[in-house]
Amino acid sequence: MKNNPIVSVIVPVYNVETYIEECLDSIVKQTYPYLEIIVVDDGSTDSSNQLVRKYLEDERILFIEQENKGLSGARNSGLKKATGKYLLFVDSDDYIDLTMLENLVPLMEESQADLVRFNGAAFVDGMEKTADQDYYDFSHRLKEKKIYQEDSFRANSRTFVSPVYLYLMKRSILTEYDLWFREDIIHEDELFTPQVFLSIQSMVYINAFYYYRRYRENSIMTIQSPAQQLRSFTSYLKVFKELELLYQSDTYNKEQKKLIKRQMLSIYNGLKENQSEAVSKNNEMTQIKSITLKDKSYLMLQKLWNRI
């Protein structure tokens, strides 16, 4: 690519013909030009592929076509081709603010942080009303433009959210620690993002809304069929077991383990919510020994607090 990209933007695509143009427009029209845009068509069966091809005159775009491997597989294919100093992941039914990278890249360069956090706004497709916007707003917990180093894990323990698209990160972190998305699960961010946070030395936060997350009726995260519920439970269980191994390791300090434990509690909640009758018969939940009575009490108090 001729523009010596500083940022690699990875966009996995699967059957998003209604949204892909809005997504790509928000990336190719960025006021910051030094990008490579890696679009991975993960075996789409609608017109997504043809719509992406309309953008290929832009020399910054690398288009990868592959058989369906799932979201993790598509992201990993993009990672293998990425050459930029920084990485940004954008889901193909979402879009980003046009000034996002113009503001984030100088902040990363000036602070020399491994990762920058920013806010996002969630909305329901076809509706003007936002959906649970507070979940993506970190201004009540983090100080703007402060460089978090030794206190990074303490600061993040109560503000951690797993969606990888809410972070701009150094690509070297992923290559140095050999971090990839696990391909046999959904909820892949629930494992990948904690692994990233366990690998960084510093982060910085900017109090601005740059990412717009779309919730749509037929997305993989809203299907509630028994088969999908079972798949969701199985994925959560795999993630939980991976986190459990990290927690039991001697590699991490007290603050890092707090972050891991907090994520384990979040996954435990996901397991309970996706525990179908078929799963219950296998007594999968009874195999989890690392969630104590104290932890369960904490979860109950947290639910009560959220209702206030």
UniProtKB/TrEMBL annotation:
Annotated signal sequence range: none
Glycosyltransferase 2-like domain residues: 8-134
Superkingdom field: Bacteria
Keywords for this protein: Glycosyltransferase, Transferase
Keyword Glycosyltransferase: yes
InterPro entries: Glyco_trans_2-like, Nucleotide-diphossugar_trans
Name of the molecule in the record: Glycosyltransferase family 2 protein
